Amino acid sequence: MIESKSRGGRPRSEQAREAILHAVDDLLLEVGYAALTMKGIAERAGVGRQTVYRWWSTKAEIIFEASVADAEEELTVPPAGTPLAGITAYLEALVRFLAHSPAGIAYRTLLAAAQHDPAVAQLIASRDILGASAQAVLDRTIPRPAAPDQVAARLIGPAFYWIMSGRDSTELDIRELAQGFLRSIQAHD
After folding, report:
1. Which pLDDT belongs to residue 142?
2. Under a CB-based contact definition with an 8 Å cutoff, are residues 28 and 63 in contact?
């Protein structure tokens, strides 16, 4: 979980925090990033604006915290019997997250905002949720890959590009992506 900066005052209420994180997910889907406000988040969560501002400075920080927590859960795949099964399971989870999950949609929204907002770009750069999840699978699948960040990027890249460019996720051949990734890794060994 992301640690929000402490601003003093009363300790964070877990119930209020959960309400705020759920509210930001709901409102993002309903009104979009541009129309999302801290006031609207507070009203939807049933808390005061002061409560929201006590823990987060911006709507992007709230969205990011909600995305990271959900991504850690949604992108965790159990160990599989073969490298192909493990990579395929991860790519299926990645596509589900990016294309269908409210947390993935929130993450994509932040990526778009980061293109013109340096503070959001810095926030996203503070924690590579996709890279970390890919690395966990790679650690079990590929013994000591050279340049692990680049290998993770090669795993994530094609599915990420497909979804971010607005293509239909059902037209993506995930098994073929997994096979191609594994062939590329073997070619570099």
Report:
1. 81
2. yes
